[in-house]
Specification:
heterodimer, A: alpha+beta, three-stranded antiparallel sheet, 11 helices, 16 strands, 46% helix, elongated, B: alpha/beta, four-stranded antiparallel sheet
């Protein structure tokens, strides 16, 4: 037997005390790990969200929709000149967004619904709704098709079709125009967003559905348009869109000099907040002005409190663990003072005896760690989600954050991997060493002659 | 072998100074069995602690085979104690969660003896104190007082010390067992050529030693050889 095995055996000298200490330590370590998991998960989410924030400002008509056919007020291109002249604004992308309806169809989804005759296209929509029990959904639409509204077999009538987004823009290759993060031209050439032409870029899905190639023609708004490029993107919305230049769309729709939205690019993130305020002032009473930062901050605010709570709780739990093992070891050393005196009398050095007690402390802590890791693994995700949901419901709002996926901020998944186990082990070792340090100090002060007199 | 010259040990109890050992001088030869007898509070245990290096004298010299342990550094004293001095205590002081065998092996671990040799020596010593193989595997809680003291004696002899100090080894035992322990100590001292100094308050037992010292108020008042 050596000092380590003797120390480990000593950890089990008093079964009841050992069990109590291991359970309490386990809960302390478990709480530390749960808070560490929560802290890491929240930090990762905050970092990921912050990294997705661009230095752009969204401008929408005040109280208006972002699609022409939805009605409501529009912004004027001339209003945007005030924004373009502001300091730190490097570029303004203007959009006139609409949806065109395949000819001979309606998008109501019920029998006998009237067809649209304005804003129609010769193209067929590449996407269809998926129906289940009379509820059909697709492209963000939900259509209820029951006998009560004339549908006979749970499917919309044959003259139903989803409409096709058509965007007029000054920046045709900007993926944000089509709610995507990438746009790749697979054939042909991009159009010039400033020129009024009859050229259009169509998505590959539309091209395939309608047998289009570069130079093919189709009609929209009763005008013939020519395919100048075919593109793909990384979103479903983007993959069913037609893109034309802003002047072209304004002419085709009759909305001369008008836009449905704009995006201003700021020269740096540091100037973003100030520029948002400047644009708001410039477009006072005309537009809703928001930036990714504002949206992100609103959505992330509850996470900041969770981050702080988890950090303080982590520190508190680790400190509690140290105090537990420290008091335990002090109690054990005092209890075994006479035995320590005997060890010194028969020739063991103070360091040797300290190692024995540290081995005992480490054994207790490692057993506590096993319980702690189980608590951490099974409690990490539920506690993280509870903290986040509680914080989110008591304050902060998602607002217009959906464009950034901020509505999914509550769906934080805590990553529980080997790193957490290693953190738990490190925490256990630190707790044991620090906790037994004071006990070791007492050991060093034990005089054999005095110890052997004690009871 | 053991030469003690004018050793004193003073304690401070508040403003009061207590001379627990007050100028003790004596000599014991190698292999001799010496007893120190005295009433409670006469300074026996303090003197034993000084002789064993568990305490430092306020004045005087304690020489074991020419080495003054009173002047040794604490660190050196630990190593010296593990190899040269064996202790037997009144209350046995065995480690309760170690077997008899493991208790006897302890001093050899402190002296960095190999595991194999520790075990061999422990078995040899426990057989010498008439322990069976089964008894060797028992923990102190499963042994009688006499058996525990035999283990303590075996432990004290583990590293073949030149000096064994027994502080009231029979104090917690009945007279018959006590005499058995005394005889065991004496026999082992002769066979192992170990100098034994035994503290006792039992005059009849003390007189059975080769030389007897009487201690009163920290001083030797009589020596019988």
């Amino acid at each position: 037997m050596n000092v380590v095995t003797r120390g480990m055996r000593n950890a089990f000298r008093n079964a009841t005390r050992t069990l109590s200490i291991v359970i309490i330590l386990g809960l302390s370590i478990g709480l530390s790990l749960v808070m560490l998991i929560a802290h890491q998960a929240v930090q990762s989410k905050i970092a990921a969200t912050n990294s997705s924030i661009g230095n752009t400002v969204s401008i929408l008509p005040l109280g208006g929709g972002s699609i022409l056919s939805a009605g409501g007020t529009l912004l004027k291109t001339s209003d945007l000149n005030r924004v373009k002249s502001l300091a730190h604004v490097t570029y303004v992308n203007e959009l006139l967004s609409d949806r065109v309806q395949p000819q001979g169809t309606n998008d109501r989804g019920v029998p006998n619904a009237p067809q649209r005759y304005d804003g129609t296209t010769s193209l067929k929509s590449p996407f269809t709704v998926v129906c289940n029990g009379g509820t059909c959904s697709g492209d963000g639409r939900t259509i209820v098709c029951l006998p009560s509204n004339g549908c006979s077999n749970g499917h919309p009538p044959s003259n139903f079709s989803l409409s096709i987004p058509l965007v007029g823009t000054t920046d045709p290759t900007n993926p944000s125009n089509i709610d995507a993060s990438s746009i790749t031209i697979t054939s042909g050439n991009a159009i010039d967003g400033s020129k009024d032409t009859n050229d259009a870029m169509v998505s590959q899905a539309i091209a395939q559905k309608n047998n289009l190639r570069v130079s093919s023609t189709f009609t929209a708004y009763n005008k013939t348009l020519t395919v100048s490029a075919i593109f793909t993107s990384d979103t479903q919305d983007g993959n069913q869109t037609i893109i034309v230049s802003l002047p072209t769309e304004q002419r085709l729709t009759g909305a001369t000099g008008e836009i449905t939205s704009a995006t201003a690019t700021v020269d740096s993130l540091e100037n973003l907040s100030a520029t948002v305020r400047a644009i708001s002032n410039a477009l006072y009473s005309l537009a809703d002005v928001t930036s990714d930062v504002d949206q992100a901050n609103a959505a992330l605010q509850p996470l900041d409190s969770v981050k702080n709570i988890s950090l303080y709780s982590l520190i508190g739990a680790v400190a509690a663990g140290m105090v537990i093992i420290l008091l335990t070891m002090v109690m054990i050393v005092r209890e075994r003072k006479r035995e320590i005196g005997v060890f010194k009398a028969i020739g063991f050095s103070t360091i040797h005896i300290m190692f024995q007690f540290m081995a005992e402390a480490l054994t207790l802590t490692l057993f506590g760690m096993v319980i702690g890791v189980l608590v951490g693994v099974f409690g990490g995700n539920p506690v993280t989600n509870t903290l986040v949901n509680t914080a989110s419901s008591s304050g902060g709002s998602v607002g217009k954050g959906d464009a950034l996926g901020l509505s999914t901020i509550q769906n934080i998944h805590a990553q529980i991997g080997w790193s957490i186990i290693l953190y738990g082990l490190a925490a256990a070792v630190i707790i044991a060493l620090v906790g037994s340090a004071l006990a070791s100090f007492f050991i060093s002060k034990v005089r054999p002659a005095e110890a052997l007199r004690s009871e | 072998m053991l030469q003690v010259t004018d050793v004193k040990r003073m304690f401070h109890a508040g403003d009061i100074k207590v001379l627990a050992v007050n100028g003790v001088s004596f000599q014991v030869d190698q292999g001799q069995f010496a007893s120190i007898v005295g009433q409670s509070g006469s300074g026996k245990t303090t003197l034993m602690n000084l002789l064993g290096g568990l305490d430092k004298p306020t004045e005087g010299r304690i020489e074991i085979d020419g080495k003054d342990i009173a002047k040794m550094h604490d660190h050196s004293l630990i190593g010296y104690r593990s190899k040269q001095i064996g202790f037997v205590f009144q209350s046995y002081n065995l480690v309760p969660n170690l077997t008899a065998m493991e208790n006897v092996m302890l001093p050899m671990e402190a002296a960095k003896v190999s595991v194999r040799k520790r075990k061999e020596r422990a078995v040899e010593l426990l057989r010498a104190v008439e322990f069976t193989d089964d008894q060797m595997k028992r923990k102190p809680g499963k042994l009688s007082g006499g058996q525990q003291q035999r283990v303590a004696i075996a432990r004290a002899l583990a590293n073949k010390p030149s000096l064994m100090l027994a502080d009231e080894p029979t104090g917690n035992l009945d007279s018959q067992t006590g005499q058995m322990i005394f005889d065991l100590l004496k026999g082992l001292a002769q066979s192992q050529r170990t100098t034994v100094i035994m503290v006792t308050h039992d005059l009849s037992m003390a007189r059975q030693a080769d030389v007897m010292f009487q201690l009163k108020d920290g001083k030797f008042i009589e020596e019988e050889g």
